[in-house]
Amino acid sequence: MRFSVPLPKCCSPWSNAGQMISRPCPEMFYGVRYNTTNNVYRKCLANGTWALKGNYSMCKAILHEERKSKMHYQIAVIINFLGHCISMVALLIAFFLFLCLRSIRCLRNIIHWNLITAFILRNATWFIVQLTMSPEVHESNVIWCRLVTASFNYFHSTNFFWMFGEGCYLHTAIVLTYSTDKLRKWMFICIGWCIPFPIIVAWAIGKLYYDNEKCWFGKKAGVYTDYIYQGPMILVLVINFIFLFNIVRILMTKLRASTTSETIQYRKAVKATLVLLPLLGITYMLFFVNPGEDEISQIVFIYFNSFLESFQGFFVSVFYCFLNSEVSRFSLIY
C-alpha cells in the first residue's frame, strides 16, 4: 500500500508558508535607482501564496538619500563656519589678554600663549582654504594653492607640537621634579614652531614628486606621503597621553596633600590638558575612522566631527586663559 505524504506549502524554495520574507530592495524600479542595502518585506501566506502587497517602505530612492545627505552636509558646513568664527573670537581675546598682562608671563603661561597663537594661525589658514579653494582652483593646482595647503598643514602640526610642549612642561615639573627654572623658552619654541617646519618641507617634496595634484589636498591611492607629517603628529599625541598618565599618577599619590600655589596651578593645568588632549586626539583620529554605510552613523560622524574640529580653539581659550586664575585676577585689577 502506498501512502502519500503531503508536501509543505511554500511560496518558493527559500520561503515557507506563514513566514515574513525579506529580500534586498530592487536596484532599479521604473527607471529610479534604489539603495539595495535596505530590504523589502512580503508575507508568504498559509496557503503557500504571496500576499498581494509587499512592504517597500524601507526602499529609499538614491536621489532622495542624496538630497538628505546634501542637507546634512550643508548643516555641517554651517556648524563648521560658526564654530571656527566663535573659536577665532575667543582665541583673539585670549591672545590679547596674554599680550597685555605682562606680569603673568611665566614660562607656563608663555607656552599657553604660543598654543593659542598656533590655533589662531591654524584657524586663519582654515578660513583662507575655505574661501579660496574652489573646484576650479583644485583642478588647476597652481603654486599659491599648494602653498596655502602646506601652510595649513604646518599650523595644524604646530597645534600638536605645542600641546606636546604643554605635556613636556608638566611632566618635567611634576614627574621628573626638576626645577622649571632650568627650562628655557627657546626649548619650547624649537618644539612648537621649528620641528614641524622640516617635517612639512619633507611632506611638500614628497607631494611634489609623487602626488602633485588638486592643490595637495587628499591623497592618491597607493601613495602615502601624507604620513610624513601625520606620523609625527600621532607620535607626539601618544607620548602626551603617556605623560598625562604619569602626571595624574603622581598627583594622585605624592602631591594630593600639597596646597602650595604652584601645585594648585599645576593641578589646574593638568585638568585643562586632560580635557584638551583627548579632544585634540579624538578629532584627529576621526579622520582615520570609517563611519560605515549606515546612514545614521554617517550623519552622527559628520556632526560630531564638525563640532569638535571647529570648537577646538574655543575650548583651548577657555581652559588655558579664561579659567586661568592668574589671568582672571590681573584682568580685574587692570
Number of domains: 2
The profile of the biggest β sheet is: 2 strands, antiparallel
Class from secondary-structure proportions:
mainly alpha
Q: In CATH's first tier, which class of the largest domain applies?
A: Mainly Alpha
Instruction: Note the quaternary state here.
Output: single chain
| Helix coverage percent | 55-70%
At the fold tier of CATH, the topology name of the largest domain is Rhopdopsin 7-helix transmembrane proteins
The H/E string reads EEEEEEHHHHHHHHHHH
Task: Write a compact overview of the structure shown.
Residues 11-63, 76-324 form the G-protein coupled receptors family 2 profile domain. The chain is 65% helix and 6% strand. It has 334 residues and is mostly helical.
Q: What report would you give on this structure?
A:
GO terms for molecular function: corticotrophin-releasing factor receptor activity; corticotropin-releasing hormone binding; corticotropin-releasing hormone receptor activity; G protein-coupled peptide receptor activity. With 334 residues, the protein is mostly helical. The protein has eleven helices and six strands. It has helices at residues 62-100, 107-132, 135-140, 143-175, 185-194, 196-210, 227-253, 261-285, 295-310, 312-322, 325-333; strands at residues 10-12, 15-16, 20-24, 28-29, 32-33, 39-43. A hairpin with a 2-residue loop joins strand 4 and strand 5 (32-33). It is elongated and about 90 Å long. The chain folds into two domains: 1-60, GPCR, family 2, extracellular hormone receptor domain (Hormone receptor fold, Irregular); 62-333, Up-down Bundle (Rhopdopsin 7-helix transmembrane proteins), CATH 1.20.1070. The strands form three sheets. Strands 1-2 form a two-stranded antiparallel ribbon. It has a two-stranded antiparallel ribbon with strand order 3-6. A two-stranded antiparallel sheet has the order 4-5.
